[in-house]
Write a structure and sequence with these properties.
The protein has about 240 residues and is mainly beta. It has three domains: about 110 residues, RNA-binding S4 domain (Structural Genomics Hypothetical 15.5 Kd Protein In mrcA-pckA Intergenic Region, Chain A); about 55 residues, Ribosomal protein S4, central domain (OB fold (Dihydrolipoamide Acetyltransferase, E2P)); about 60 residues, SH3 type barrels, CATH 2.30.30. A five-stranded antiparallel sheet has the order 5-4-7-8-9, with helices on one face. A five-stranded antiparallel sheet has the order 12-11-10-13-14, with no helix packed on it. The protein has a five-stranded antiparallel sheet with strand order 18-17-16-15-19, with no helix packed on it. The longest helix is centred in the N-terminal third of the chain and has 10 residues. The relative contact order is 0.12. The mean pLDDT is about 95.
């Protein structure tokens, strides 16, 4: 049986929350995002965006106001919101992108209405389907079918919302810009200098050279970040 709550002290270290405020916090429902990469929608509204002071207030907002995640209306307090998801409050004309900050903590970064129409998603695996087509299985649980398989596992696709059309293909290759979503450098944005099997050599904006595992890499741009909200993070460092 899945519990609706967890102890605050036991919540993932990626969650930016006050761990001494109360004993328990809402647990997200099972979904496409791992626990360390996603938070319940009500917790995001209360702890990150700060539109509510209490859990009760957050629930009230979800029941009485329009709240969209990736262009779909959501009113479930436990709905899991994860990395690269866009949260929209149309009545307030407010938009937020879920990202990792420089300390590896989940953050809700202000976005524009234009940016709310797109998102990035990493290719986790590929599957052959009928008609010789290929299905791309993505980081956020989406499945996209393509006619021509020019994509590799680890690459990122930029999608339109809500149509889910591929707007751009960001390859995991030398010179690409990454956001690290795991390991001791989690939250760091850096460029690829070399790829050797499962290890990537990177150089940060501070000219620091280091290595990480390929599974921690999320391509977010070519020469520059593909999203303005990610540019905000790089500018703040």
């Amino acid at each position: 049986m899945v519990k609706n709550h967890m102890k605050r002290i036991a919540a993932p270290r990626t969650w930016r929350i006050n761990r001494k405020e109360s004993k328990y916090i809402t647990r997200p429902k099972p979904g496409p995002h791992k626990l360390q990469h996603g938070m319940p929608l009500s917790v995001v509204i209360r702890e990150l965006i700060k539109f509510a002071k209490t859990a009760k207030d957050a629930k009230q907002i979800l029941k009485t106001k329009d709240v969209f995640v990736d262009k779909r209306k959501r009113d479930d307090e436990r709905y899991p919101v994860g990395l690269m998801d866009i949260i929209e409050f149309p009545q307030l004309e407010d938009y937020y992108r879920m990202l990792l900050d420089g300390k590896g903590k989940i953050a809700a970064i202000k976005a524009t209405a234009k940016e709310a129409n797109t998102k990035l998603s990493r290719i986790e695996s590929k599957t052959k389907v009928k008609g010789g087509k290929t299905q791309l299985n993505l980081f956020d649980g989406r499945n996209i079918t393509v006619d021509k398989d020019d994509y590799k596992v680890g690459d990122t696709v930029q999608l339109s919302l809500p149509e889910q059309k591929i707007l751009d293909h960001l390859k995991l290759e030398k010179g690409a810009l990454l956001m690290l979503i795991g390991g001791k450098h989690s939250g760091t944005i850096a460029k690829i200098e070399d790829i050797s099997k499962n290890v990537i050599t990177l150089r940060s904006s501070k000219n620091q050279k280091f290595e990480t595992l390929k599974r921690h890499a999320f391509v977010v741009g070519k020469d520059k970040p593909a999203l303005d909200s990610i540019k905000q993070l790089t500018a703040a460092k």
